[in-house]
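hiii so um. not sure if this is the right channel but i have a protein structure encoded as tokens and i wanna go backwards to a sequence. like what aa goes where. can anyone help
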């Protein structure tokens, strides 16, 4: 078996803030294989975005710092502590990124066509003269086919969905092996969300790209992902294939996320949100970080079981999942 494209081991990104030490990402390990789409789900404030940003050194620093012992390898190359110029080379060329607010990521004073072309030029994929027509092709590929109008337009003249399409064109311009997408559809209308997911699915298949797809929306995960990491309070609490997680969730947090879905099928169609809320990242509970919100909490949960380093297979950071009868979901 070939090595994974991306290997993350014990990633810890902490923020040294005036109000205390925030262990926003606190020992996260996972792999992304070639061609695989891995989802990261969890409520807001659990460290999903900081995880994504710190993979390529984009976390705000200071106050953030990727701590000693963290490792992020892309095709075997260590990125933690890598030269900033090397990271800039990798960003946009080997790894593309898209974010929740496309309009904020685009330059407001330059036409979209020029921005897509620039992504090619800065990574040595040809002269401006060659890059501009290629930019038009890329814009057409992401559904902005009316290039004469859209390509020469400025971001403020485009809808949110069109801006996200333009961002996607920039992100995939250099044919990256991995696309990191952080809540790519969260800011968009429901119908547009579906179109953008279809676009990403099509690009991924045509280019055999791997994806790391971050979302708080389990529906998006079900549609797009092969494997899922469930993140709570700076840690991964459960991993598995999409089918394993949706059909047989084992961690009470995963069970709670599924129960709070609109189509979870409860009598009367009522949603059951998880009680309580994510604590501030400066004050994660000791032991199992979910224990104050967990319907199954017991004294043992003052200490937390380990999560084996996730390669294949499923892992659950819960004592209940260790019992022979399994399943914390009963
Ligand atoms: N720039 C920052 N400065 C200080 N703390 C931050 C910063 N960014 C994120 N954090 C802390 O990290 C936690 C996790 O944030 P984030 O990764 O954005 O969560 P998610 O994407 O899962 O909603 C936040 O709740 C916050 O406490
Ligand atoms: Mg986020």
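sure thing!! here u go:
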């Amino acid at each position: 078996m070939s090595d994974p494209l991306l290997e993350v081991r014990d990633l810890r990104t902490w923020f040294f803030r005036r109000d205390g030490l925030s262990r926003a990402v606190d020992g996260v390990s996972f792999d992304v294989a070639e061609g695989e789409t891995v989802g990261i789900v969890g409520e807001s404030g659990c460290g999903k975005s900081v995880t994504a940003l710190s993979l390529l050194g984009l976390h705000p620093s200071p106050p953030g710092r990727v701590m000693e012992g963290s490792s992020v390898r892309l095709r075997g190359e260590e990125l933690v502590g890598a030269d900033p110029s090397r990271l800039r080379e990798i960003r946009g060329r080997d790894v593309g990124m898209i974010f929740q607010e496309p309009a904020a990521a685009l330059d407001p004073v330059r036409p979209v066509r020029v921005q897509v072309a620039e992504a090619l030029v800065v990574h040595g994929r040809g002269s401006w003269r060659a890059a501009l027509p290629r930019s038009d092709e890329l814009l057409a590929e992401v559904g902005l086919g009316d290039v004469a109008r859209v390509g020469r337009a400025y971001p403020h003249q485009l809808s949110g969905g069109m801006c996200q399409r333009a961002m996607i064109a920039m992100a995939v311009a250099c044919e990256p092996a991995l696309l990191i997408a952080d809540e790519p559809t969260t800011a968009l209308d429901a119908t547009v969300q579906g179109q953008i997911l279809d676009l990403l699915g099509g690009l991924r298949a045509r280019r055999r790209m791997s994806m790391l797809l971050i979302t708080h929306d389990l529906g998006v995960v079900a549609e797009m992902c092969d494997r899922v990491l469930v993140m709570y309070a700076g840690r991964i609490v459960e991993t598995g294939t999409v089918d394993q997680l949706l059909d047989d969730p084992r961690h009470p947090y995963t069970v709670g996320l599924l129960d709070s879905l609109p189509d979870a099928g409860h009598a009367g169609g009522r949603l059951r949100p998880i009680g309580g809320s994510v604590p501030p990242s400066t004050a994660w509970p000791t032991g199992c970080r979910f224990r104050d919100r967990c319907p199954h909490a017991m004294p043992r949960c003052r200490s937390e079981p380990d999560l084996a380093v996730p390669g294949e297979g499923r892992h659950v950071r819960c004592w209940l999942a260790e019992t022979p009868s399994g399943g914390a979901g009963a």
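oh and The first helix runs from residue 48 to 55.
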